[in-house]
Specification:
Chain lengths: ~290, ~160
C-alpha cells in the first residue's frame, strides 16, 4: 500500500472539516473491509483516511417500535443481528447483513460502508431500498437526507457530493402484517458475490390476503442496485396469488439490464431476477402473515 | 506520514509499537512484534488465515490497520496455549490431524474457539457457516470438521 495519512475524528464537525478540506483526496474509514483492499490493490488513490468509528452518531444504533431504527453508518453488521429487537423488526435486513462476507467481515464491515461503496451487487442495499429507508449525509455546511432508492447512481458512485459523508440510515418503524425478505444466487453456499439478488417488502391488508404496499429492488442486474417500482404499482390492491407473483417475476426480469461477466450471463441474470423476486415476495408474505 | 506509537494489548500484554498508518495489524504482528503465528494468505479478507480476536470479536487482521488497534486487545494463536498445555481446540486439531501444510491452521484455531464460545454444541451447518471465512486448500475440510466436533465435546466436558 502507498503511504497515506490517517486521522480519527471524534465529532461530526471534525469529520466534516477533515473531509471537506481534503476533498476527493480523502475517504471515510469505517470497517475498512472494502477501502483497505482497494488501497492495497491500487484501485483507489487517496492521501487521507478519516476514521469515523469514534464519532458517536456513526457508531450509535437506536431502535423503538414507534420511531423505527436509526443505524449509524459505521455500525458493524453483527450488531444488527445480535440485537434481538432489531433482528425481529427487520428480518429482511438480517438476511443481507448475515450473508455479507464471513464472520470475520461481519465483525468489522458496516451497512453504511456497503451502501457508500455502491457496488451494483451489494447485498446490503436492496433491503435498505425496500424498507423505504432514508440516508442522512453530512457536509461542511450541514446535513441533508437522501432516499435510499436515489442514493446509488452508478458503479461506485453515490448522490453524495465531494466532502459529504453518510451519518446514519433511518428505517421507518415496522407496520403490522408487513415484512421483507432478501435473497441472492451464488454458485457457492457462502462467501461469494451475488450473480443476482432480490429484496422484497410487502404490506398486506388486515386479512393478510391483499397487497397494500410492495417494494422490490434487485442486485447485480443493473449499473446500480435497482428499484423496480413497476412491481409495486402492479401488485398494490391485488389479491395474493401465484399468478400475480409470477407476473411480478416477469416484471423483474424485464426491468433487469444486466451485463455478461465471469459471474453470469445477461440471460441467466434476467432469469434469476424473476425467480429470486418470486421467492423474495413469497418469503416476505410468509413473514408478514406471521 | 510520520510514524506513530500505538499501544496494543497482545495476548494480555500491553505492547507499544511504532507503526505507519498504512501498516495492517497483520504486518505489525508479524514484522514489528515478530509474532509469526498469524499467517498471511490472500491479504484481502477472503481466506481467514490471519484471523485474530480483536476486542473479543473475530476479525481478519489484514483488514485492520495497526493505528485502529491503538488501545485495543488482540488475541493471536500464540495466546491460546497456557503453561498447563494446549488449548482444547489445538489439542483436537492435533489429535485429528486436521491440517497438512498448516498455513490456514492458526486462523482455523482462532475461528473455532470463537465459534465454540458462541455455540458450544454446534450443528454441522453452524460449523460450516461460521468457518466459511476460513479456507483450507489441503484437507478437504473433513478432518477439520472432526476436530471442531472433538474440541466442542472436550470444551463442554471441561466447562
Amino acid at each position: 500500500m502507498k503511504e497515506i495519512d490517517y486521522a480519527s475524528a471524534a465529532t461530526l464537525s471534525e469529520a466534516a472539516s477533515l473531509l471537506s478540506k481534503a476533498g476527493d483526496r480523502a475517504r471515510v474509514l469505517a470497517g475498512g473491509t472494502d477501502i483497505i483492499v482497494q488501497l492495497r490493490e491500487h484501485r483507489r488513490d487517496i492521501d487521507l483516511l478519516v476514521d469515523v468509528k469514534n464519532v458517536p452518531e456513526l457508531s450509535a444504533m437506536t431502535y423503538s417500535a414507534t420511531d423505527g431504527l436509526t443505524l449509524g453508518a459505521a455500525v458493524p453488521c453483527y450488531r444488527i443481528y445480535e440485537t434481538p429487537a432489531v433482528a425481529a423488526a427487520y428480518p429482511g435486513l438480517v438476511d443481507a447483513v448475515s450473508m455479507i462476507g464471513s464472520a470475520q467481515i461481519q465483525g468489522r464491515a458496516s451497512l453504511g460502508g456497503n451502501i457508500c461503496n455502491a457496488s451494483p451487487a451489494a447485498d446490503g442495499i436492496p433491503p435498505v431500498i425496500v424498507y423505504g429507508a432514508t440516508l442522512k449525509v453530512q457536509g461542511p455546511n450541514g446535513s441533508r437526507e437522501i432516499a435510499a432508492a436515489d442514493f446509488c447512481v452508478s458503479p461506485g458512485r453515490t448522490a453524495m457530493r465531494t466532502g459529504e459523508f453518510l451519518v446514519s440510515i433511518h428505517f421507518p418503524p415496522p407496520k403490522p402484517r408487513a415484512s421483507a425478505h432478501y435473497l441472492r444466487f451464488i454458485p457457492r453456499n457462502e462467501m461469494d458475490i451475488a450473480v443476482a439478488g432480490s429484496g422484497a417488502y410487502v404490506e398486506l391488508d388486515a386479512g393478510g390476503q391483499t397487497f397494500k404496499t410492495v417494494r422490490v429492488a434487485l442486485a447485480a442486474v443493473a449499473p446500480r442496485p435497482l428499484p423496480v417500482p413497476e412491481i409495486g404499482e402492479f401488485l398494490a390492491g391485488k389479491t395474493v396469488s401465484d399468478e400475480v407473483i409470477r407476473r411480478a417475476g416477469e416484471l423483474a426480469s424485464q426491468a433487469a439490464t444486466p451485463i455478461s461477466d465471469m459471474r453470469g450471463t445477461t440471460e441467466q441474470r434476467k432469469h434469476l431476477a424473476g425467480v429470486l423476486t418470486r421467492r423474495a415476495l413469497n418469503g416476505a408474505i410468509e413473514r408478514a402473515r406471521g | 506520514m510520520a510514524k506513530q506509537i500505538v499501544q496494543i494489548t497482545v495476548n494480555g500484554e500491553p505492547t507499544d509499537v511504532l507503526v505507519e498508518p498504512r501498516d495492517s495489524l497483520l504486518e505489525t504482528l508479524r514484522e514489528n512484534l515478530e509474532m509469526t503465528g498469524t499467517k498471511e494468505g490472500c491479504n484481502n479478507g477472503n481466506c481467514g488465515a490471519c484471523s485474530v480476536m480483536f476486542d473479543g470479536r473475530l476479525v481478519n487482521s489484514c483488514l485492520v490497520l495497526a493505528v485502529e488497534a491503538d488501545g485495543k486487545e488482540v488475541t493471536t494463536v500464540e495466546g491460546l496455549a497456557t503453561s498447563e498445555g494446549l488449548h482444547p481446540v489445538q489439542q483436537a486439531f492435533l489429535d485429528k490431524a486436521a491440517f497438512q501444510c498448516g498455513v490456514c491452521t492458526p486462523g482455523f484455531l482462532i475461528a473455532t474457539k470463537a465459534l465454540l464460545e458462541k455455540h458450544p454444541n454446534p450443528s454441522e451447518h453452524d460449523v460450516r457457516y461460521y468457518l466459511s471465512g476460513n479456507l483450507c486448500r489441503c484437507t478437504g475440510y473433513h478432518k477439520i470438521l472432526e476436530a471442531v466436533n472433538a474440541a466442542a465435546e472436550s470444551m463442554r466436558e471441561g466447562a
